[in-house]
Amino acid sequence: MLSTVVLIVASLFGLAALTGIVLIWIMGYLMWRAGPHGHPGNEF
């Protein structure tokens, strides 16, 4: 019982960490695209 709860909590924490990393990567990519490094005509 206790091991099942620990497994569920660990999986939820891992999923939240992975989601946070992906969101940070996407935000960083969008900021890089909006910066001077982007090619002309590729702005949103």
Which tags fit this structure?
44 residues, 1 helix, mainly alpha
Architecture overview:
- The protein is mainly α and 44 residues long.
- 75% of the residues lie in helices and 0% in strands.
- It has one helix at residues 2-34.
- The longest helix is centred in the middle third of the chain and has 33 residues, at 2-34.
Please count the beta strands (DSSP E, at least 2 residues each): 0
Order of helices and strands: H
Coarse morphology: rod-shaped
> If helices are DSSP runs of H or I spanning 4 or more residues, what is the number of helices?
1
Estimated share of beta-strand residues? under 5%
Keywords: Membrane, Transmembrane, Transmembrane helix
Please render the helix and strand layout as text.
Blueprint: H1 2-34
Brief account:
This protein has 44 residues and is mostly helical. Keywords: Membrane, Transmembrane, Transmembrane helix.
